[in-house]
């Protein structure tokens, strides 16, 4: 058994499975986040969010897999009768992109569901996440990297019912510099990282996303008052989490509490997943201690 303080994961994502009564923790392995050749992705399991078993293999690339480094930000969503992993990969000479993997069980093993990245060919992209709208249409929200466009961009694209390919053209939602709290780099670079969608109270659609802030890596909140994934999107003036942490997601535990997981600090190899309780009001998410 281990605790979150011993797990060197960036970009943590927790799937709560009512079927198995277990929580599944996925993330970017800190040891190979920036260098080295990753083995794939691992998963930890827990009945109580305190003691965790693992790591267990969740994805292992088969010979000939197109990517060889920067295996980043795996997140798993239950959709219809299967489990889908959205994860970002890169290879020398091939732009980073998000590919969709599939498994019959939440722990895996996961195998490619799309033939390659679902993000547009030739774009530098990462951090795809699943959103299913009120009509049941699946979308992927993803980031186009500042490395390519300087002012990082957030997009949404329709997916087909099999989650194996895009079913339309990407829609630009916003640019990182539109958030008052986002701070650019020395040459005007603005980062977009880690989108996660949450239906808010009163019909708003909320998006957690991360960028550079006044005190380092930070996470803010964007809002679509219409409830539509296509917006228009507005940005809260202040970050939701302001200092040296981010790439967050929300889930409900088996007692019904709304919880947030992020990684902090944002220094490799010190980053660890943390859990925070969230109180939701009509227009606010208030973060407290767990």
Automatic annotation (TrEMBL):
<feature type="site" description="Important for catalytic activity, responsible for pKa modulation of the active site Glu and correct orientation of both the proton donor and substrate">
    <location>
        <position position="127"/>
    </location>
</feature>
<dbReference type="InterPro" id="IPR006710">
    <property type="entry name" value="Glyco_hydro_43"/>
</dbReference>
<comment type="pathway">
    <text>Glycan metabolism; L-arabinan degradation.</text>
</comment>
<dbReference type="Pfam" id="PF04616">
    <property type="entry name" value="Glyco_hydro_43"/>
</dbReference>
<comment type="similarity">
    <text>Belongs to the glycosyl hydrolase 43 family.</text>
</comment>
<dbReference type="GO" id="GO:0004553">
    <property type="term" value="F:hydrolase activity, hydrolyzing O-glycosyl compounds"/>
</dbReference>
<keyword id="KW-0326">Glycosidase</keyword>
<keyword id="KW-0378">Hydrolase</keyword>
<dbReference type="InterPro" id="IPR023296">
    <property type="entry name" value="Glyco_hydro_beta-prop_sf"/>
</dbReference>
<dbReference type="GO" id="GO:0005975">
    <property type="term" value="P:carbohydrate metabolic process"/>
</dbReference>
<dbReference type="InterPro" id="IPR050727">
    <property type="entry name" value="GH43_arabinanases"/>
</dbReference>
<protein>
    <submittedName>
        <fullName>Glycosyl hydrolase family 43</fullName>
    </submittedName>
</protein>
């Amino acid at each position: 058994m281990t605790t979150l303080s011993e797990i060197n994961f960036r970009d943590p994502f927790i799937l709560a499975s009512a079927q198995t009564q277990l929580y599944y923790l996925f993330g970017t392995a800190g040891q190979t986040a920036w260098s080295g050749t990753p083995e794939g992705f691992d998963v930890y399991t827990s009945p109580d969010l305190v003691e965790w078993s693992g790591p267990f293999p969740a994805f292992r690339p088969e010979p000939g897999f197109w990517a060889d480094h920067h295996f980043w930000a795996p997140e798993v969503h239950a959709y219809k009768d299967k489990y889908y992993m959205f994860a970002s990969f890169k290879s020398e000479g091939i732009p980073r992109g998000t590919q969709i993997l599939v498994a019959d069980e939440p722990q895996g093993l996961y195998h490619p569901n799309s033939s390659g990245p679902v993000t547009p060919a030739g774009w530098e992209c990462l951090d795809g996440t699943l959103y299913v709208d009120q009509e049941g249409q699946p979308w992927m929200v993803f980031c186009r990297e500042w490395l390519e466009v300087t002012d990082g961009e957030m997009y949404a694209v329709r997916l087909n019912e099999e989650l194996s390919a895009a079913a339309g053209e990407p829609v630009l939602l916003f640019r990182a510099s539109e958030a008052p709290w986002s701070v650019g780099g020395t040459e005007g670079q603005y980062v977009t990282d880690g989108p996660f969608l949450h239906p808010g109270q009163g019909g708003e659609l909320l998006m957690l996303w991360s960028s550079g802030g006044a005190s380092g890596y930070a996470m803010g909140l964007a809002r679509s008052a219409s409830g539509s994934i296509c917006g228009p999107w507005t940005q809260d003036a202040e970050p939701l989490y302001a200092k040296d942490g981010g790439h967050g997601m929300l889930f409900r535990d088996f007692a019904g509490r709304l919880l947030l997981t992020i990684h902090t600090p944002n220094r490799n190899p010190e980053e660890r997943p943390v859990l925070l309780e969230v109180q939701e009001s009509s227009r606010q998410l208030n973060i407290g201690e767990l």
